[in-house]
Design brief:
The protein has 2 domains: 63-181, Sandwich (Jelly Rolls), CATH 2.60.120; 194-390, no CATH class. It has 4 helices and 24 strands. The protein has helices at residues 3-34, 227-236, 246-258, 339-352; strands at residues 63-69, 74-81, 86-96, 102-103, 129-133, 142-143, 147-151, 156-162, 171-181, 192-193, 207-209, 215-218, 221-224, 240-241, 272-273, 276-277, 280-284, 293-306, 309-324, 331-335, 356-362, 370-372, 378-380, 385-390.
């Protein structure tokens, strides 16, 4: 047989084989949809290229129901949220404390005992349903109670828990429903690099001083924003403004006791910058540990603006215990020598609360890397100063 005739015959054979496969596939399809259960011959394998299909975007789940047990302080719900999401959280059910007293999601009425307990949310009832975003040390717990609506400022997993000390357990559980309205516009979690001239630091001393002029804590951060915005930012980030005088402290402590809340606003000593004592002091501490251990800082309003914005200069340290004041021999607070960790903790608190429009780190030409405070404690640093701009 000639080569052209052979090719002609082969084409007919291939056409017939293809037709047979097509008819067979149609028959199988018809059998599958008509409920046919008889014997079927397997189809011959083909080498046809796979058909490309568009990848389907995962559908985000927007409603959840779960139970939060009273037996642990915090539960990771596994519900991932992003900045800008609007949450509606509702709860029912009850828990029982060690005395078998029942309480709903709003918790127990506060009593004198609460003055001696470290509750995650100091202003909420013991045993109340509470929440936080993520498990960072900078995450700020908040009251959920029977119902709470909020807009997420920083993404992460939603944690729900019981407003009780970590060592305590309660019986029962709360049944919780969570509904999510996704953010209309995704909120970027990446902060813009703040464009600030290093000349800003040339007008700021490197260290603060005590009343006698002895050098003390390092200046390790700068905040750019109005006074109202500064106070609101620290409050939103979980810090309290401390009392300035002993008389303020006594009055505040009495008011705290009448509401059965722990007193967190204990004053701090005065230090000096720009020729005056700090304008504000802020602290963040667990109840009961506020005397011995707390994050705290002082801020001074700078005698100049930056591009029309108010400049606040700060020195942040972390009290971790007590030591002897080498000037007087009296007992004083001991600070963590690694003051850079406290600087970064302040930044993390502000980021977690979604308060910043930009940040940067600057290294002054006369950076301080190792020194002693006015009380004799040692400090170490990489010498950088954190500069943060607050959102309007």
């Amino acid at each position: 047989m000639s080569e052209p005739n052979l090719r002609h015959q082969l084409r007919w054979v291939m056409f017939a084989a293809g037709l047979t496969l097509a008819l067979g596939a149609g028959a199988v399809s018809q059998q599958a949809t008509s409920g046919y259960n008889g014997p079927q011959q397997p189809l011959a394998a083909t080498t046809a290229a796979p058909v490309k299909t568009a990848a389907l975007s995962p559908v985000r789940k927007l409603a959840y129901e779960l139970d939060i047990p009273g037996s642990s302080q915090w539960t990771d719900t596994g519900i991932a949220v992003v900045a800008g999401d609007r949450l509606t959280i509702t709860a029912s059910g009850s828990i029982q404390n060690s005395a078998a007293q029942p309480a709903g999601p709003e918790g127990f009425a506060r009593g004198w005992r609460d003055l001696l307990r470290a509750l995650p949310v100091n202003g909420a009832g013991g045993g109340a349903l509470i929440g936080r975003m993520g498990d960072s040390a900078a995450a700020v717990p908040f009251l959920v109670g029977a119902s709470r609506e909020l807009v997420v400022s920083s993404g992460g997993n939603l944690f729900l828990g019981i407003n009780q000390p970590a060592a305590e357990q309660s019986g029962g559980s709360f049944h919780v429903r969570v509904k999510i309205v996704p953010a209309e516009k995704p909120v970027s979690s990446t902060l813009a690099e703040l464009a600030v001239s290093p000349k800003l630091l040339a007008r700021i001393p490197r260290r603060v001083a005590d009343a006698q002029g002895n050098p003390g804590d390092l200046v390790n951060f700068v905040v750019i924003g109005s006074e109202d915005r500064l106070k609101a930012a620290f409050q939103d980030a979980g810090w309290v403004q401390v009392d300035r005088t002993k008389s303020e402290a006594i009055l505040h402590a009495l008011l705290s006791s009448t509401t059965r809340q722990s007193y967190l606003e204990m004053p701090m000593s005065e230090l000096y910058l720009f020729g005056r004592a700090q304008d504000f002091g802020f602290a963040r501490a667990e109840p009961l540990e506020v005397v011995e251990s707390r994050h705290h800082l002082r801020v001074w309003k700078a005698p100049f603006d930056y591009e029309g914005q108010t400049v606040w200069v700060g020195a942040a340290t972390h009290d971790i215990g007590f030591e002897r004041d080498q000037r007087t021999g009296h007992v004083t607070h001991k600070i963590d020598p690694n003051v850079d960790q406290e600087r970064e903790f302040v930044e993390l608190c502000f980021q977690q609360a979604g308060l910043l429009s930009g940040t940067t780190y600057l290294i002054p030409p006369d950076a301080v890397h190792a020194a002693h405070t006015a009380t004799g404690g040692s400090i170490q640093s990489d010498g950088r100063v954190l500069v943060m701009a607050l959102r309007p």
